[in-house]
Amino acid sequence: MRAFQILIDGFAISALYALGATGFTLIFGVSGVLNLSHGAIMVAAAVAAWAAASILGVGTYAGALIGVGVALLTAFATYFAVVKPIQDSRRIPNEEKEIFVLTGTLLWGIMIQELIAYFFTNNAKTVLPIVEGVVDILGVRTPSNEIFTAIVCCLVIGLLWLLVNRTRTGKAVLAASMNPRGVTLLGLELTNIYIVVWAIYGILAGIAGVLLGMFLGVSSYSVGPLTASAFSIVVLGGLGSVSGSLIAAFVVGYLETLTAYLVSPAYRTIPALLLLVFVMYIRPQGLLGRR
Amino acid sequence: MNKALSGALRGAFGAAAAGALLAASGAAFAADPIKIGVIAEAQAIAGASIPQAAQLAADEINAAGGVDGRKIEIIGYDNHSSSADSVRAFQRAVNEDKVNAVIASYISEVVLALEPWAARLKTPFVTPGAASNEISKSVHADYEKNKYTFHGYLTSAALALSVCDGAKDLLVDKLHMKTAVIMSEDAAWTKPLDIGYEECLPKIGLKVLDHIRFSPDTTDFTPIFNKIEGSKPDVIITGISHVGVQPTVQWKNQQVPVPMFGISSQATNETFAKDTNQAAEGVLYQGVSGPGVAVTPKSVPFAENFKKKFGNYPSYAGYTAYDEVYYLADAVKRAGSTDADKLVDALEKTDWEGTIGRVQFYGKDDPFTHSIKYGKGLITGLMLQWQDGKQIAVWPKEVAKAEIKFPSFIKLSN
Questions:
Q1: Touching check for B275 and chain A: CB below 8 Å?
Q2: Strand partners, B76
């Protein structure tokens, strides 16, 4: 009974982690950017979905769409207002650009966080679930929304796989992640590829944010922990490796759920962090990292 | 009339009018204003009402002529829920803005950090919403030093009593409940609260089956509710303030069949219904007042005026902050001065009927020195329930507007 409970709850949270981390790792793989405003973009999506549904009263579906739209816009704003100017700058030496991008996106994330707290308070918001009610699975009373979350996450990740491996645009993205110079030599504009990647990222982060808002709820305080969890999943899986991130998301998700059920909810995140430290010692490139 | 002349005339009239205005305001408020610093969590549901309510009280007092011709001036500081920011704000309020008294915070950790500063800077300081017993115990332990701090809200010990008094009538006598699980966040204010619960729940006939303390950072409450359900209690007795929206929404989404009853600070604010998408339905929480509840003749007009001005009903800390401005003004009037020591003496003699009941402070010899007195005829608190999207008083019977009722997923065992 308890084993089933852990299996079911762990799956939903892991799938959500996987979705959140996939976009994050994709951006790094293709353009070498570690986007530390990741958590802020997810929270912006959830709060926008909440505000649209609760304050403007547009309904659950439209609210969710608005949430994803806001994440897409915020992702573009991050790229055009923060990341691109740093990458294009001639006054910042190339070897320092990474650290500038890290700092820039971190500050950008804090700005978004403070704006959300200012306009919508720092108390948690929850997005009205698209499906309500509970279903009995193997004796475990499971909210339908939890199943919905898991299904949507798997579907979206599946679609992403198709996009990357089966379409021309996707193949260009994949090529850029392997060898950016080679792609430009083939006559493809690197900036266009980046825009596509940021668009994919925005949509992924938006869906993950809205689903998280429905599943657990978010507040402006969630910004830091969400960035940190995506970051540690991606590092554990191997920076830039999408399949590595997927595996790592399930490892972290289940480890947290096991701890919460079998030890104490208060220590939920600790074992996963210890594992991360351990992996860094014996395999610095992560589970499936290249390098 | 040529343009230059008309301009000059207009200038002269303007100056005269301004002079007349100055003279008028000078006549109404002869002396310096009484300055009250308000340090609060402007971005949190419970804290946001504090500066708003204080300003409302000041505006009313000023409209009625002020205190002996002196105007009340509220100076607000946002502390971002941080103790460090609060200490800086306190220092600035006293040293630069020269406030005469400070009203601050609903978070016990913040108030405990400010208490020594009230002592060092010798500035009367009242909290509208923190609950930890340690606040008034420190005043008792070192009266001469800490006498500047007043606890304008119930202590955790009194809160536990209030919840138990309500639980006896509503849960034990009416619904024949026998068992409970305590669920509280790990924070300074819940330590004495939990001790209080452990002590008084068995006395009223509720056996405590389990006691779960969780980190205020918790986002996923599934394992917690799961564990609680495992011990099959009749009721969950809550002690939550930093969290509120998330456990409530997850309680509803997971259809946890056990009712929640106790302290839930965020539930005291009207915006809670929207923040939880109405998941609050059926939640029972302790309050000192509430919309439409005439605890005293002042309660309802205050709540309505507040809503008219700010668009929503105040949180619990709004009621207390409003009263605090009034009894601080009353103390200044009785002391005939804003001198800190005279003000402390006058505050100790406070006997003020506010929006939450009759406010008096425990004296030097009581273990809870400078905390507001709990009891019949003074402040007893009440229990409210979210019903059909509204906060409805259900206990005590003098103010109750409805019977308690629960959403369909709640299974009452008796």
A1: yes
A2: B38
- Structure-model confidence comparison of residues A221 and B235, the more confident one: B235
Nearest to A121 among B45, B255, B277 (CB): B45
Check: CB of residue B184 under 8 Å from CB of residue B213.
Answer: yes
Contacts of A128 in chain B (CB under 8 A): 277
Is B25 at the interface with chain A, CB within 8 A? no
A26-40, A260-274, B366-380: the lowest-pLDDT one: A260-274
Tell me whether residues B220 and A117 touch, CB distance under 8 A: no
| Residues A261, B223: C-beta atoms closer than 8 Å | yes
What's the CA gap between A32 and A194, in Å, rounded? 11
CB pairs under 8 A between A and B: 87
Phi/psi zone of residue A89: left (φ > 0), alpha (ψ -120 to 50 degrees), beta?
Answer: beta
Provide the CA B283 distance to its chain's centre, in angstroms: 19
pLDDT digits (tens, 9 = 90+) for B235-284: 999 999 989 999 999 999 999 999 999 999 999 888 888 888 889 999 99
pLDDT of residue B210: 94
Q: What was the pLDDT predicted at B74?
A: 97
Give the ipTM of the model, two decimals please. 0.85
User: Cα–Cα distance between B126 and B192 in angstroms, integer?
Assistant: 20
Q: What is the pTM of this model?
A: 0.85
Residue A114 to chain B, least CA–CA distance (Å): 10
- Average pLDDT (B367-383) is 93
Residue B135 three-state SS: helix
E strands, A42-114, in order: none
Query: Any idea how long chain B is?
Result: 414
Q: Which of B81, B220, B276 sits opposite A216 (nearest CB)?
A: B220
Say if strands B34-40 and A140-143 run parallel, antiparallel, or are unpaired.
unpaired
- Strands B235-240 and B207-214, by their bridges, are unpaired
Tokens linked to A273: 């962090």
**The tokens of A274 are what?**
């210890």
pLDDT band at A291 (very low <50, low <70, confident <90, very high): low
The structure tokens listed for A289 are: 């990292």
Task: Round to whole Å and give the CA distance between A100 and A86.
Answer: 7
Find, in chain A, the residue whose alpha carbon is nearest to that of B43: A121
